[in-house]
Amino acid sequence: LRFYEVHVGSAAESGIGSFARFRESVLPRVLQLGYNAVILAGVVEHREYASGGRDVTALFAPFAKLGNPEELKELIDVAHSMGIIVVMDIVHTQVSPSSSLANTDGAFAYTHPDRAGGCSLDHSRWEVLRLLLSNLKYFMEAFRVDGFRFKDATSMLFVDNGAAAASGNYSDYFGPQFDEAGGLYLMLANELVNRLHPGGAVTIVEETTGVPTLCRPVQECGFGGFLRMESAAASLWADHLLHVRDEGWSMGHVAFTLMAKRPREKRVTSVEEMGTRRPLFNLLLGDQQSLQLTSSPAVVCDRAVALHKLLRLATFGLAGEAYSTSAGVEYGDPVPQNLALEGPRRGWTLPANADPRHACLQVFETALMHADERFGILASEHEHCALSDQGKMVLAFERGESLFVCNFHPTETASGVPVECGRTADPLVLALHTDERRFGGAGRLRELETYVPTAGVIHVTLPPRSGLVLVPHDSLESGIRVTVEPTDAVHMGWPVLDQLRLDIVEANGAPDSRHESLRSDGLVELDLSSATFFVRGPGDWQLHPTGAVGEPFRVHFPGDYQLTCVGVLQPAPKQLQVEVRRKNVHPDLMVEVTHGIAHPAHIAVGAVGGSSGRHASNHDRIRFNPFESNASEHEDVALAAVDQKEHAGSVPAKEEEEEESGEGDGGGQVFEMRAAVSSYSALSTVTHATALQRTLKRHKAGRMGEHHGKHTDVPIVSVTSEVHPFSKSGGLALVASSYAVEFPRRNHLFVCVSPMYDDVPDANYIGSTSIWLAGSHHEVAYFHQFEEEEDGQGADYIFVAHGCYRRPGGLYHNAKLGVEYEDNLFRFALLSLAALEVPLVLRPRGLYLGEKILFIANDWQTGMVPVYLADKFQASGNYRDARSIFVLHNLGCQGRYPEYRFPIPETVGLPEGSCECLRLHGCIDLAKGAITRADRVITVSPSYAGEIQTPDGGCGLENLLRQKGQEGKLVGILNGVDTSFDPATDTTLAQRYDANNLQARAINKAQLQRSLGLEVQEGTLLIGFVGRLSAQKGVELLQDAVPWLMNEKERGAKVQVILMGDGERQYREFLSWVEVTYRGRVCGYTGFNGTVERHMLGGCDAFLLPSRYEPCGLPQLFAHRYGCLPVVHATGGLRDTVKDGETGFTFEPWDWRRLREALERVLTVFYKDRPRWEEMQRRVMGLDWSWGRAIDEYEEQIGRTFQ
Description:
Helix 29 (1065-1077) links the parallel strand 48 (1055-1061) and strand 49 (1082-1086). Mean pLDDT is 77; it is low at 284-298, 338-343, 487-492, 573-670, 672-676 and 679-707. The chain is 30% helix and 22% strand. The chain has 35 helices and 52 strands. The chain is globular and about 100 Å long. The two termini are 65 Å apart. 51% of the residues are buried.
């Protein structure tokens, strides 16, 4: 394992970072540098940055200054998708003096009154054990972390903080100063973590005295840790740099210190610790006084760069079975973190913008990480000191089959040094040396030089302060060979392989500009030892590295490499196994990779072959399981709740065969990552997991019961411009996504057609066709993906690929300029034609859809579907039995374009006689065409269906819609809502509740008030608002309502208000103004946070929705679920779902006077008739707003459409 240790708050170059910023900027950096694990510091809520996360105030809360819990879950999910193991710091030795746990005494005390100022936890108490073990289980199950680093375990194990044990005598380790209760807790904690995550847990124990058996299994009477956080190497280098002149370093002492360890215990080492003694950092500052030097600053800096690389090489090769780098060490950040003054910042841009030495150090660190991935250094058990020459200050040692040679002398070259290489008689090749020019060296060694042993000895010449790594000749042949498996490319819809090329920008450490084309079998050979290149094809086609869009691929060593079609470049493994297993009638996807990092996207492209690698079986293996279920669903989180039976089970047959075969000489550790996605917000971010998102969500939410659908003999093709999670700009994507879940549940054959705005990793190329539009032919490609339900039913997604859909901005608008794309009319006319071609030219899963089909067109973007169906396809004899339904989500957007710019016949490719249905006031109007030609029109609420037939709501189409209504072909069907909005199961709430336990809402209300800076007053009416800050949402009325509500003298009662939203500037400024003006009584939250919204639903007494018009509306439905009474303008879906005095409060018409009257009624019932208020709460919580009701009505309309 290669750990990157970093404080989450350091994600920002200046100021304080956040979970989201860390996810976006630091995780791709970690992956690019070559680390496969991170240690996250400062995650748990603590009092101040200066404590580095140790001054814990709330054990179960992520640090609020960095973001909310959902954002932390998203960070961990994204890390797992990149193949990065996540270990978090946990402090279970003490708590902050300001913590409530530190202020208990007597029989209820959690702390030792006589240790650490009364803040040291008392592990002899059952309540303490239960609390701490629950804390571990909570973070593992709720946030899916892979393990923990137990900070300051020395204080846990010794009452004197290990002072007596420093002697190293066993009697001192387990003498009177040993805290048996602390030791027992550490055993229980490690055992619990390993039971919760068998085979993949990573526990690191930070202990400084060298306690025996710290990392031996509990079954062997050990403490059960996986890795010991070893500080001997860092202390050695600090002491030598600060107190010993360079020429006085003892090679024997260095070798002994680095190799010393407890038998059969694994260590994680680092070259420098996160603390005050960081001499390597001081070197780059040129701090001559502290380093006792008289040289010039330039010489000091050269010395610093050389020692940085040399000490890292020696530590990496000899000092442990895992390696850790503190953020900043990899590039030599010259400024130590001052947590008290500046927070945990790092100079991330130094390697690119400052002294080039920083960049050289970072390149060396990357090469070192890739050397481990290529040659399996850390996983090798064999280590042997081959030479310790004090005279020449040369240290040589073997690690696995690699030979390290280091010259520590500050001025003299070590010439012809004899070094034993007893493990092999084969020639050795120079794979890596610190003097390479790309690492800031002088380039005094020849690249790929071969050393031939004579009588088991080679002779090495090394410049001063340099080191090298030699590997067997047959594992590092000259030249680079990159292979792409042809079958993968076919599945992913790539161009023909021999049309691809490698655009090389750097070769052998020097700039380059050559281009190398792939052969037809997907192979390209480079006569280079290292290379940096882009993979490009015809036009603007380009393959991006996983987690680093826009970055080039980098190869640090010669040899065979495998390039997968999802952007993973890795040493060609011995075998890359991909298993698709099924468990509980539900896909359990598993990837096992024998090199470095596992990527779930390999599931889509199949197994990747490649030439065998000598060290393939040595490497640590990481398994990514995106559908892993929780180890336990019990509420009891003590160790007793983790029954051994829950985790018993046989090893899969394939794994048993691997273990028995004993392939490889090192074996390596197998890690099964806790990679189940726990944050729905992460589903659109997780690399290559897009295709798994909705299946995962359905799996977690569970089935809503079995349904038997009507008219299931008619296939349904839903055409939409966006569908979650593949594309989203608003509520349309969510509704389209719900269709794709709910219709298949009723046994409908359902196909969803949508543009391919970006790559969909799990979608496979299925075919193409040529479409005539706007005076020319246009080639479109189709990509298919099947989303399977638990019972084998599911939705087929067809993505239409064409260059017009790939835009750097939004789906419909240029986000930077704020203007609509000029070719939107062409883009969505093309989508409509391509969707109508799908049943004719494609066979998804081999199924023939036939010609009796129902086409559902959603909003104006697909308004041409009914038009083309009637005037193009049916007019030519196709789809005679097909029908179309146009779903009108918002008539305010109609797709209207001036005809003088877009002549209708030429633009849409229809004869003049068919174009009249599209004309409106000198414009082409796509919504008008759809309403005219569709067999039925459905809107998203019954009242909205009536409103759009009036001049006020019809937006110029009221006459046409009124005619449709008179024909019985216009209806309104309320949308359903996500059943995950349920206060009885909502884990984000401080206290879950149902209609029979309304008093529990008071706990949520108090927590909400505290968290948002409001005065905690249970009896005060708390009103909330969540929505887009725009005129349509009625924010103008809020500008009158809030000051009136704050006027306590006029109303005679106290009121608190929470406003959350984002949008137009003047409304954002209003939110800021009211919060400042009425501090403690009003919170103005600019932005949107899903967790805060749920807290508002569970804590607010009333919810305000003063929209001018609202086709459907969802917030009032969510409010009903949570027993929060809505106050709404009686319009559209709000009128249909809220009945005044029964399920909320309404006002009309839309003006301030009517809203004030409604608010007066709210105040009267809340303060003077509390039984009626609670009766209304229980009533609204029993309402059914599920999608099942809506689909019943849709099926009725389908039946009428085909009558």
